[in-house]
Specification:
alpha+beta, Nucleoside Triphosphate Pyrophosphohydrolase, four-stranded mixed β-sheet, 7 strands, globular, hydrolase activity, NUDIX_hydrolase_dom, NUDIX_hydrolase-like_dom_sf, Nudix hydrolase domain-containing protein, hydrolase
């Protein structure tokens, strides 16, 4: 990946976060958990920040949490959730002067969309629960443990 391809998205991400802290003191987000037939988890790696995450992002005006999670799965991971996106839990996410709430959905039925990954995604890949990437984001790892029943649901992202 070229330096420009990494640097510009990081700068835009930082500027966007600064804007949100000043202009929108409360933000809403949604993430989608997609598992394949072998039970592996679909994770994405962004171009602008380190770590692996579930596909997801901010809820737009006039958009529901579920619609946001479905849209982000399509845009970030080229996955079309066909039906049955189930709400798993809603989390509070308070860090970096941010007041954020994140809804986590589970995709029951999905298919590859045939589309391209968003410019902000460097890679999307399935991982078995027992072989997750080393640089998986801590909250993503905790959510996987909750989904598998290895830990109770923590209301904080």
């Amino acid at each position: 990946m070229t330096t420009a391809r990494r640097t510009l998205p990081r700068l835009l991400h930082r500027a966007h976060n600064a804007y949100l802290r000043l202009r929108k003191p409360l933000t809403l987000g949604a993430r989608m958990v997609v598992r394949d037939g072998e039970g592996r988890f679909l994770l994405v790696h962004h171009t602008y920040r380190p770590g692996w995450f579930f596909p997801g992002g901010g809820v737009k005006k006039w958009e529901s949490f579920e619609a946001c999670a479905v849209r982000e799965a399509r845009e970030e991971a080229a996955v079309e959730v066909e039906s049955g996106a189930r709400l798993f839990s809603v989390y509070a996410h308070f860090d970096q002067l941010r007041c954020d709430h994140v809804a986590l959905f589970l995709a029951d039925r999905w298919r590859p969309s045939g589309g391209r990954l968003s410019f902000e995604i460097a890679e999307a890949r399935f991982f078995p629960a027992d072989a997750l990437p080393r640089d998986i984001h801590g909250a993503t790892h905790r959510r996987i443990q909750e989904i598998l029943g290895h830990r109770s649901i923590d209301p904080v992202w």
